[in-house]
Amino acid sequence: LIAEKIASAPLEDKPQTASHEKRSRRLIDEPDAAKEEEKFLFQTKTASAPSCSTPLSPSDVKFTLVTQFSSDRLWMFPYHCSRIPNDVPISMVVYTDKSVDDVYNEIEQSGMCHANFRNHTTVQTLSTQNYDKGEYPVNKLRNMALSAVQTSHVMYIDIDFWESFNLFSTLSSPSVTYELANDAQLAIVVPAFQLMRQCREYRECPEKNIPVIPSTQEELFDLVQEKQVFMFDPTNAGGHGSTLYKEWAMEQYVGDLLELPCIKSNRYEPYLAFRYCEELPPFQEQFNGYGKNKMTWVMQLRQTGYKFAQLGGAFVIHYPHLDSSSRLEWNKAPKQVRGHTPKKVHDVDWKKYKRGINDAIFIQFREWLRSDVKDTSRVLLCDDAQDDDAKLWVDRD
């Protein structure tokens, strides 16, 4: 029953199926002036990281929690302190004009982090003065945070996803560290859930949300039964739909690894634990703000030979905040496409819209991935994979 309720959250309309070679449709016909677009240089490796070929034993496998966020979400960080062991290193980057000391002091004032947290936490800041108003250089922040990692492996999460209490102890279990030590291209999927906002009015209500956020699998299942927790994100089935939620709920034990047989969508963007080493693809910094920034990284992981296995017994849970300014910017759309399924629309300057801009960058990335990056995939798209290209505003196929 729990498994059925996890998977029965309202999802978007049933996706179309497509073969690998199915050509996508064009939603927006770009004007001639848009054809002279900027060409981007995408990256294949994390050059500053250690070699992936260095042998590891299971005892060498250690994790750093890596995250990034804007200053308005700094208040969330102390809640992560309360959910992870005191000796887990943390690398964070804050998009703010505050100093690093200001960030440390604000965290200390919360009283929720252990006394020596500075010794385990690396804080970097990136000034907003370097970017236009409304920009959020999310992938730049992610790469900066990764650059400070000193452990063999990383657990990456965005700050609005909170860990189950047992996440790091489960990742550090012998069965998991053995597999990670023996495969530098194993990515551990941590199933992601979302909590319904606990106030009826449209406002931030941490006083109601925070006491309800589950920290154990038992608490999570109780909230699933109450229809307060669902798989993340019901409005974007491709984003986490390849995660095997029913199997996680009904079949997997704590620390059990279950390999994903195939990927249902190129929009798959789970939260992952992975080895930090040179052959790891970086986050492509051409993507900023909301949209395409993490799914493109996972696409590149898959093409370069990574396999994906989901972790039993642990999870991350999304804090139900209001839409960010980046999401609101992404939501803006020309009136011709609002509320419609993808179809041809004429006389729209897609460069005026964030979604159109990121779609155009994505098309360049996709073509670069196809032409310049050797396909050594160990996990293929499912035979009934979604036709993700049907959702693009701009297409040059």
What would you note in describing this structure?
This protein has 397 residues and is α/β, with parallel strands linked by helices. 27% of the residues lie in helices and 14% in strands. An eight-stranded mixed beta sheet has the order 3-2-1-4-10-6-11-9, with helices on both faces. It has a four-stranded mixed beta sheet with strand order 5-12-7-8. The protein starts with a helix and ends in a 25-residue tail after the last helix.
Number of strands: 12
Which radius of gyration do the C-alpha atoms yield?
21 Å
Q: Name the strands of the widest sheet in spatial order.
A: 3-2-1-4-10-6-11-9
Strand content: 5-15%
Oligomer: single chain
| Helical stretch tally | 14
Q: Provide the low-confidence segments as ranges.
A: 10-35
> How does the helix and strand content classify structurally?
alpha/beta
User: Would you tell me the overall average pLDDT?
Assistant: 87
The global form is: globular
First-last Cα distance: 44 Å
Order of helices and strands: HEHEHHEHEEHHEEHHEHHEEHEEHH
Portion of residues in helices? 25-40%
| Major sheet size, sense and barrel closure | 8 strands, mixed
How would you sum up this structure in a few lines?
With 397 residues, the protein is α/β, with parallel strands linked by helices. 27% of the residues lie in helices and 14% in strands. Strands 3-2-1-4-10-6-11-9 form an 8-stranded mixed beta sheet, sandwiched between helices. A 4-stranded mixed beta sheet has the order 5-12-7-8.
